[in-house]
Here is the input.
Amino acid sequence: MKKFLALLMAACMLLSAVPALADVADTVAAAADLTHDELVEKALAETGTFVVAGTTSRITTAAEAFAELYGIEINSTNLKDLEIYTKLESESIDMVMIQDGAQLLDAIDAGIVINYVPASVKADVSEEDQYPLAHQFTNKLFIYNNLGDDVPAIHNVWELTDPSMKERIIFKSPTGEQVNMNFLIMLTSEKWSKKLEEAYKAWKGEDIDLGDYPTAGHKWIAEFLPNCQFGKSDTNIAEEISQETAAGKIGLFVLSKLRSSSVLSDNLTPAQYAASAEGYTVEPFSGFMYPIYAMVSANANRPYTAMLFIEYVMTAEGFAPWGKSIGAYSGNSAIPEKEGDLPLSVWKDTLVEEDPEYILDNFEVEDFVRQYLQ
Amino acid sequence: MQQTQTGKVKFSRIKGRLHAWFSKPANIILLVFLIALTVLTLYPLLSLLMETFTVHMGKEARAAKLPVGAFTWYHFQRVFATRDNNYSWIQFYKPLLNTLAVSVTSSVIAILFGGMVAFLVTRTNLKYKKFVSAVFTFPYIMPSWTLALFWETFFKNVNIGLKTSNGIMASVFGVYMPEWFVYGYFPIALVLGLHYAPFAYILIGGILRNMDANLEEAATILRTPRWRIIWRITLPIVKPAMLSTFLLVFASSMSAYSVPVFLGSPVRYYVLSTTMKELMNTYKGQAYIIVGVMILFGVAILMLNQKVTNSRKQFTTVTGKSGQISKIDLKRANAPIAIILVIILLLVAVVPLVTFALESLIIKAGDYSLGNMTLDFWVGTGLDKRLDQGDSTGILLNPKVWKALGYSLGLAVTCSVIAGTSGILVGYGVAKRRGSRLANWVSSLSFFPYLMPSLAFGAIYLAMSSNITWLHGFLLLALVGSVKYLPFASRSGVNAMLQLSGEIEEAALITGVPWWKRMLRVIFPIQKSSFLSGYLLPMVSCMRELSLFVLIVPTSNTILTTMLMQYSEKGWAQFGNAINLLIIVVVLLVNFTVNKLTGASIDKGVGG
Here is the structure.
C-alpha cells in the first residue's frame, strides 16, 4: 500500500511538473516588465545547463562571455535556419537566434517560439523591430572583384541581366538558404517592382516590356538567375571572388565575410561603398538585408535565463562578438555600427528588406524561381 | 465427454509442439528478431507512408490550404503531376533520371573496376598483390565525400564551375580539365563507383578465390582459348556476385547525398537525394514521397536479384577435391598493369589524404607557397582574434573536437556491439532453420534497412522519437545506427554460420552443453574472424557516417562528422579538412588495430 501511495505521489508530481514546462509563454508574458536585477535573480534561481542555438556562429562567443559573467553552465550550437525548427521539435533548447522572418511568424503562431522584448532596452528598439524582436541585421551586398579591365562596378541592377554577365555572378542558391529566396520574393512586391521598372527605364532609356511576366520583379529574376553560378557558402563565395584569377566576377553575399582571413579582401569592393564614396546610387538596390531574431523557445527549461541572455545580447557588451566587424547592425539603435562601415540608416534606404507577411502570402513565387535554378 | 477429451488431446498436442518449438534457441531467436525488426523497420515505413498523406506545419499547410495534420493527396499531386512552372519535372522527373543514370553507371564502374582487380589479384601472377589488396578497401573505409572533395580541389580551374580559382592540377601542373570531367554526371558516377568498388572486389574476389579450378582446367585441356574460358566459364560463375554488387552499389549510390552535392550543385546537376534533402525542410510530405520512390527502386532490384539468383543454374563451385587454382601468367604485361593499378590506387586512396593535410595548412585558398602555411588550424590558439574565422583554437586543442571524437567512438562501439551480436544471432537462427518461412522473413527484414536512404531513415526516426519521450540523444543514435548497420552484420553472420556443419554443434548438444555455452565455446571460436568482421564493418561505417545522424544528433553532443559538415557549410575549409583527416586516420587506425589483433577485416565482413 505504501509503495502504491509513493508511486501515486510520484506520478502526481510528474504530472504537475508538465504544466510548469508548458507555461513558458505565460512566464515570458508575465516577465515583460521585469527589471534587469529581477531578471538576474530569477535566472540564477533556475537550474540545469542553459542551451542556446543560432544561425550565427558568433552566438558561441557571446554565450561563453555570458556564462562567465553569471556563472551559468552553457551549451551553444550553430545550426542552419530550418534545422533549428527540427531540433526544437525534438530537443529542449532555451533560446534561439534565427533568420527568415516568414517561417518565424508561422513558428510563433504555432507556439514553438515566444517573442520577448527586454524592458531595459525597449526604448532603443524601433517599434517595427520589436515583433518579432530583431537582434541584428545582416546585409548581403553586390560585391565585386576590383582587378583587371572589366570590373563589374554596377550602377544599376539591370546590368546584371545583360548576356555579357553570363556566369560572372556568384550567389548562394535560393533553395539552399531561405533568406535568399525571400529577397527574390520581395522583388515581386508592388514597391520593388515599381522601383525596378523605374530603374529599367533609367538603364535602357525606354519603358519596360514585361511580356508574359506579371511584374518587373519576375522579369529581373528570370534574367538574373540564368547569369548566376551558385556557391556552397557565403564564405566560399567571398574566397572565390577575391582570388586574383577571378577578375570580372561579382557576388551577392554577406558583407561580414570580408573580415575572414581566408578572403583576399583588398581585391573586393562592395558596390554600395563605391557608390557612397563617389556619390552615385546603385539603382534601385545594392543588395538585401534581413534580421536575425532572438526568441525564447517554448520548450525552455530556463526561460528566465533565456530572457536574460536576450537582454544581454541586446546590450553593447553582448553585441560585441558581432559588432567588432563590419556587416552586423544591432537592433538596438543605441549601439553604433563598426567604424568604417556605413550606418544602418543608409542600408535601410538602399537594400531590399524582408516583409514576412508579404513572403507568406506570396510563397508560390518560389515555384517561379525554381525553374531558373536548373 | 468425448469431445472434451479430444479437445484436451488436441490442446496437449499443440502445447507439446509449442514446447518443442520453443525449446530450440534458433526458433526463439528468429521470433524475437521477427518482432523486433518488424517494429524497427516496418513501423518506420508505415509512419513514412502516413507522412505522405499528412499536412505539415509551415508552407505546406498554406499551400494545401488545409489545417496541420489533415489528410491530403496534395503531396502526390505536387510531386507527380504539377505542370505549372515545370514543377514535377524539376523536382522529381529530371532528378530521377539523373539518379538512375548515376546509379547504373556507378554500379557498372564498381563491377568492372572491382571485378577486374579481383580477377587480377586472385587469378593471375600480378605483382604488388599485397599492396593492391591492402589499399583497395581504403576508399570504402574513408567517408564518401572524401574523394568528391578531393576531386574538386584537385581538378577545379578558372574555365569551369564558378570559374574563379585553380586547383592543384591547374595551378601546379598547368593542366585544365574540361567541365564534364570535374562536375556533374561523370565524376559523380565515377567517384561513387570507385567508393563502392570494394564491394565488387570482395564479393567477386571471394568466389574467384574459392571456385573449382577443374572447370577451367578441363577447358584448357580441350584447348579452349583463354578469352572463351573467361566468357563461358568464369563469368557465369561470378554472375550472382556481380548481381549482388549491382544491388548494393545501386542502392547506395541512389541514396548518396554528399557526393552529388559537392560535384553536382556547381553545375546545377541535381539527383533525388539532393531534392529530397531540400524538400525535407520545407515540404516534408513531398520529401517522404521521394524517399518512398527510392525504397521502391531498391526493393525492385532486390526482387530481381533474388529471382535471377534463384533461377540460375546451380554450380557447385566449392568442392573438397579442387587442386591449385591455375594462375594466368601475365608475362610482359605484368609490370605495366601492376604499375598502372598502383598509380590508380595511390590517386584514389593516398593522394586525397595528402591533399587534405595540405589544405588544412594553407591560410588563403589557392596559395600553396610555404609562406601561406600554418599549423594554427591544428594547434593554434587565439585564432578568433588573429584569423577572425572559425574556432579560437586549432582542432587538437579544442575540447569540443575531443568530446565529439569520444562521442563518435562511443557511438560506433555501441552500434557495432548491438549490430554485430544481432548479426551473429540472426545468422545462427537463419542457418539452423534454413529454408523455413520464418528464417526467410527475418533474413529479408534484416536486409531491409539497407534499402532505406540514410537521411530518410534518420528523419523518420526523428519523427517517431518526438512521440516517445525517452527516445532521445545517444539512445536514439545508437538504435538508428544499430538497425541501419544490421544488414552488414547479419550478412556476415549468416554466411559464417552456413559454412559451419551442423555436426559441430550436435556433438556438444548430445553431451548436454547449454546453448549459450555452445555459442561461446564452440561456434564463436571457430568463426571468430568472420564474426569480428561483422562487428568491424558497422563500427567503421558508423565512424564515418553523416547523413544517417545529421538530423538526430543532439545539439549538446555533436559527433565528428556533423561537426565537419558544419565547418564545411560555414566555409571554414581548413578546420574542415583537418577534422576530415582526423576522422580518416582514426578509422584507419581502428581498422588496422582490430585487424592486427583479431584477424578480422572489412573484406571478410562484406564477403562472409
User: Anything to note?
Assistant: The CA atoms of residues 72 and 508 of chain B lie 60 Å apart. The first helix of chain B runs from residue 2 to 22.
